[in-house]
Every structure is written in C-alpha cells, then in structure tokens.
C-alpha cells in the first residue's frame, strides 16, 4: 500500500479538526509493519512518527498497537527501543 499517502490523510484529518483514534493508528502502524521483509528505513521512520503522534494525542495504548510497533522495531534490529516501548 501507499503508506505515505495514508499518513498524509491522517495529517489532513488532524488539520481539519478531527482527532484520529487508536483504531486509525492501529491500522496505519499495522499496515506499515505488517510486511517485515519490505520494511525500509523510510517506513520505519513513518511508523515511529505515527506512534509518537499517537502517544502525544493521548490515545490509549493497547496490545495491538504496542505489539505492531515493537514487531516493527525488532524487524529493523532496534531491540533496545522495542524493549522501552513494552
């Protein structure tokens, strides 16, 4: 999928006054991190941005968004950062 476009839509939602909920972030982060074989540095950076923004907006963490993001970090070899997320 076009993850950059999905992220731009998320930003547009915010700009229009809508606050994306955790489900939106779960879908975005899950789709970025879903195919660990094609995870590029750009996609990892996009997942990190989305996760940080999710935290900044006060969205509730749950096992889906935490496990998706930690799986993404581990796929990229960022084990220490993944441990801090857990």
UniProtKB/TrEMBL annotation:
InterPro entries xrefs: PPR_rpt, TPR-like_helical_dom_sf
Top-level taxon of the source organism: Eukaryota
Keyword Repeat in annotation: yes
Metal-binding among keywords: no
Keywords: Repeat
Pfam families linked to this entry: PPR
Protein name per Swiss-Prot or TrEMBL: Pentatricopeptide repeat-containing protein, mitochondrial
Organism (species): Noccaea caerulescens (Alpine penny-cress)
